[in-house]
């Protein structure tokens, strides 16, 4: 009988934990995202969507900027997860690669700019704990983490764009060039 009670308590406990997580989101990240989305949309409206789109087009004309500087600016200014909305200024064939680059950069930026992804700061702090224990500076680690992140997002962006374009052509969404 004790076994059945423990299973029942565990079962309901799972839903209680889910409810606590949900309430944390309702009082934490959801209002933050709504305010961020509203602020970003307001800035886009004030500046003009055409100007923002033109800036994005110029910045993303070359793949090296499209998959380094563009995600860097998005993650730095909009933070995770709002940064992914910058993809709306890109053509469809580049959106998956942009997302791949941006989502891959939310950890490497944390060492230098913790505001960009504070929820994942524990990853960087876990890595840096060994250096802190040895009394070493965290600056070089943060810089190498950042630079390595830029290299990785460039590679991921280029590869993902190549795969996306190939798949879109195969499915008939893009004309053969």
Kindly summarize this structure in a few lines.
This protein has 177 residues and is an all-alpha fold.
The Cα radius of gyration reads 21 Å
Order of helices and strands: HHHHHHHH
The helix fraction, in percent, is: over 70%
The quaternary structure here is single chain
SS class:
mainly alpha
Tally of helical segments? 8
Mean pLDDT: 86
Give the total of beta strands.
Answer: 0
Give the DSSP E fraction (strand runs of 2 or more residues). under 5%
How does the overall form come out from the CA principal axes?
globular
InterPro entries: PTS_IID_sorb (IPR004699)
GO biological process, one term: phosphoenolpyruvate-dependent sugar phosphotransferase system
Keywords: Membrane, Transmembrane, Transmembrane helix
Transmembrane segments: 21-44, 64-86, 136-159
Structure, explained:
Keywords: Membrane, Transmembrane, Transmembrane helix. One of its GO terms (cellular component) is membrane. With 177 residues, this protein is mainly α. It has a domain at 49-171. It has helices spanning 2-27, 29-47, 49-59, 63-66, 69-78, 95-105, 121-133, 139-170. Helix 6 runs antiparallel to helix 8. The radius of gyration is 21 Å and the shape is globular. The N and C termini lie far apart (70 Å). The model has no long low-confidence stretch (mean pLDDT 86).
Task: Break the fold down into its secondary structure elements and pairings.
Elements (H helix, E strand, L loop, with lengths): L1 H26 L1 H19 L1 H11 L3 H4 L2 H10 L16 H11 L15 H13 L5 H32 L7
């Amino acid at each position: 009988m004790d076994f059945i009670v423990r299973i029942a308590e565990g079962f309901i406990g799972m839903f209680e934990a889910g409810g606590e997580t949900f309430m944390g989101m309702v009082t934490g990240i959801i209002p933050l995202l709504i305010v961020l989305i509203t602020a970003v949309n307001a800035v886009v409206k004030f500046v003009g969507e055409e100007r923002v789109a033109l800036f994005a087009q110029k910045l993303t004309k070359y793949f090296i900027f499209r998959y380094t500087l563009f995600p860097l600016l998005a993650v730095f200014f909009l933070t995770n997860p709002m940064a992914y909305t910058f993809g709306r200024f890109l053509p469809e064939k580049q959106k998956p690669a942009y997302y791949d680059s941006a989502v891959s950069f939310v950890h490497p930026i944390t060492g230098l700019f913790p505001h960009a992804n504070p929820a994942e700061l524990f990853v960087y702090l876990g890595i840096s704990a060994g250096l802190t224990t040895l009394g070493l500076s965290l600056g070089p680690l943060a810089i190498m983490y950042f630079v390595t992140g830029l290299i990785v997002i460039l590679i991921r962006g280029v590869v993902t764009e190549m795969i996306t374009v190939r798949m879109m052509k195969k499915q008939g969404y893009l004309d053969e060039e």
